[in-house]
Amino acid sequence: MMKAIKIITVILLLCNAAIAQESKPPFYDDIQAFKQQDSSNMPPANAILFVGSSSFTKWKDVQEYFPFCKIINRGFGGSSLPDVIRYAGEVITPYHAKQIMIYCGENDLASSDTVTAAEVYRRFKTLFSIIRKNDPAVPLAFVSLKPSPSRRQLWPKMVQANRLIKNYLATKRKTAFIDVYSKMFNKNGTVMQDIFIEDNLHMNAKGYRIWQKAITPYLVK
Q: What is the pTM of this model?
């Protein structure tokens, strides 16, 4: 009898753990990992904050590309703009950055055929408003969506979303739109294949050097 009770207890504990895991919002563990890092070594204020999706997440050595300034990397892989909006109070606000660099929106388009360029633009405006409400003076730059070969079918939407966001930022103070999209093509109009890793989605060091060259002139010194 006691053995049966123990077995039932273990099953219930496992079920509760599974339910608790499922009840976590998306990227909860990533955000908790950031908080853990901050609790042991809080980044300095007035650094440049990189926030967004996996193209930033996988830029593990981003600090080496910009040695003249302090970089905080808070990209979390797979995220879309609603995720960055959800966690803005945890991955943006606490750092009191002197500049915010955003790369996000590509996963929004890839998540569903129903997500349009206009929807990505609307989501970006929401995030922009949240950031500026918290700090009206912080400089903000948006890195354009990139032409990932594995998402070739989304390129027209990316071009449109980039244009909408670029035009919007042109009306706002202390903003920049950083075009990396056009810089990732060969002169003959084909996308550079040797700047991506095997998944044809994420970049290798050669790809990030293109981004380094594009981003550097816009960084607040």
A: 0.88
